[in-house]
Amino acid sequence: MSKKSDSQLQNLFSSQKLTNWDERLAQIAYRFNREYQGETFELPIEVQAMPIFREWIAGSFSGRIASSFWEIAQPQKNQHCIDIGCGISFLIYPWRDWQAFFHGQEISNVARDTLNSRGPQLNSKLFKGVELGAADQLSYSSEQFDLAIATGFSCYFPLEYWNAVLMEVKRVLKPGGHFVFDILNPEQPLAEDWAVLETYLGAEVFLEPLAEWEKTIKATGAKVIAQKSTELFELYKVRF
């Protein structure tokens, strides 16, 4: 990683209220910046011997486990949607087909810069830009969005953090808006191996029981509207 990128990571939250999560957020941002930049990860031989690692290094695993949020919450034409922890999703998912407005927030400055550079070229009408920041401190106005999306990162944080994320999403959603997100299901056969791999890649994984997650969801006043199981994750659609 370049010195510029390291400096950006160190200053990632300098303009925001300090939280107890800054070190973990910076660590996860660093892990994904390295992946987006195509850097090599040096892992123990025993980890490299795991079948899940061989799939990951071949590039086939991410597509296999990605949560297809649109199967339970497809963005609708002219809806304003926020993708939290968006990565480079606008370049991958069919936003042009949905004709929905895309707003993003991301802790990886590499992903943010990539999307802000290429998104307008892909569709300048639908792409509304990506902000750099954490999921518990969204850089958007209250009651701004019809749909919020957050897939692929909840497992890197304890439930206490996710409680703050739920409350922040509740703030930015319009009345009647929906939030769709995924949760790592520790009962799935691949869960432990995937958690080991991710931890060695630099992002520790929390294996929280689904029952504890559902208590956290309920405590924020959210009601589960739809649910879908995948090979690794449990996908939820909730309304506050």
Task: Kindly describe this structure.
The protein is an alpha/beta fold. It has one domain (3-239): Vaccinia Virus protein VP39 (Rossmann fold, 3-Layer(aba) Sandwich). The chain is 39% helix and 20% strand. The protein contains ten helices and seven strands. Helix 7 (109-123) links the parallel strand 2 and strand 3. The longest helix has 15 residues, at 22-36.
Topology:
Layout: H1 3-10, H2 22-36, H3 45-48, H4 51-58, H5 61-65, E1 80-84, H6 95-98, E2 101-106, H7 109-123, E3 127-132, E4 145-150, H8 159-172, E5 173-184, H9 191-201, H10 210-219, E6 223-229, E7 233-239
Parallel strand pairs: 1-2, 1-4, 2-3, 4-5
Antiparallel strand pairs: 5-7, 6-7
Helix pairs in contact: 8-10
CATH class: Alpha Beta
Number of domains: 1
Overall average pLDDT: 90
Structure classification:
alpha/beta
**Terminal Cα separation, in Å?**
40 Å
CATH architecture name: 3-Layer(aba) Sandwich
Number of helices: 10
Strand order of the largest sheet: 3-2-1-4-5-7-6
Return residue spans where pLDDT drops below 50 for at least 5 consecutive residues.
1-18
Tally the beta strands: 7
Choose one word for the global shape. Answer: globular
Tell me the strand percentage band.
Answer: 15-25%
- CATH homologous superfamily classification: Vaccinia Virus protein VP39
Largest sheet: 7 strands, mixed
The SSE order reads HHHHHEHEHEEHEHHEE
